[in-house]
Amino acid sequence: MRTASDITVIIPAYNAAGFLLRTLETVAAQREQPGAIIVADDGSSDATVAVAAAFAASHPECAVRVLREPHRGPGAARNAALRAADTAWVAFLDSDDRWEQEKIARIAAAIDTHPAVNFWCHNQTIQFLDGTSRVTDLAAAYDPTRPLSPQLWGNNLFLTSAVVCRRDLVLSVGGFDEDLTSAQDYELWLRMSPYLVARVIDTPLGKYIERRGNISASRFLKRLRNLWRVKHRHRDKVSFVQYLVVMAHATIFHLVQPIAGSLRHRRRRGTS
């Protein structure tokens, strides 16, 4: 029987000193503890390493390891942690996201109940800058009765901090693409999709925290370029018509979203 101790939590961190501790605390607060936590520092110039090391010293029960890597991006940091892990399963968690207390326990129980499944995800709450929040219903978006690859190409169905999967599966396809500055996770899911037996839990077991840097127009344009690259690379997974339609939709969405984020921020400032 698999348990929480079969799971290593992988946290890439770059200049995350201001929020990493809060993220780590949500792992320490889990009702069932994972087997290990690996914080892969991506060449930070702030106190990220010191924060992680202090947390490790004060929480010996969490089995925290801190890797110091040169600055090569989150894909390279995650790959370093994947190589350092020694458990059958890995759970990804971004350094500014948070988990609900039942996350690991729910996933461990699901692994025990469904041994054929090699990839787990769950719904996620998004907390916006203006204090509002909404649940991203990934479970409703994914249809397990249909082939995964074309569904996934049309829409990224799996958020990184909500994914727990077999470590050997990730390594077998070469891990994250270190040349992509964003969308490395989406590209990896697409590359793994022919081999995935995936399930999505319809409970929000984590929280994505919106920060000002994440809603800037320049960052969204960079993400859009990488999204184009990823979808074009995996265009063989869909028809040519679907390729054209989804690329147009993705372009419009990624151009409009930073404007919407900016308007939410302005409303927040106007009421403060």
Relevant terms:
43% helix; alpha/beta; nine-stranded mixed beta sheet; single chain; 272 residues
Strand content: 15-25%
Number of helices: 10
Nearest-integer average pLDDT: 90
Termini distance?
52 Å
What Rg, in angstroms, do the CA atoms define? 18 Å
What does the largest sheet look like?
A: 9 strands, mixed
Shape: globular
Helix fraction by DSSP (H/I, runs of at least 4): 40-55%
Task: Explain how this protein is built.
This protein is of the alpha/beta class and 272 residues long. The chain is built from 10 helices and 9 strands. The chain has helices at 20-28, 48-58, 74-84, 103-113, 138-141, 148-154, 167-172, 184-192, 217-233, 240-271, and strands at residues 7-13, 36-42, 64-69, 89-92, 98-99, 119-127, 133-136, 164-166, 198-209. Helix 1 links the parallel strand 1 (7-13) and strand 2.
Chain-wise SSE layout:
Blueprint: E1 7-13, H1 20-28, E2 36-42, H2 48-58, E3 64-69, H3 74-84, E4 89-92, E5 98-99, H4 103-113, E6 119-127, E7 133-136, H5 138-141, H6 148-154, E8 164-166, H7 167-172, H8 184-192, E9 198-209, H9 217-233, H10 240-271
Parallel strand pairs: 1-2, 1-4, 2-3, 6-9
Antiparallel strand pairs: 4-8, 5-9, 6-7, 6-8
Quick rundown:
This protein is of the alpha/beta class and 272 residues long.
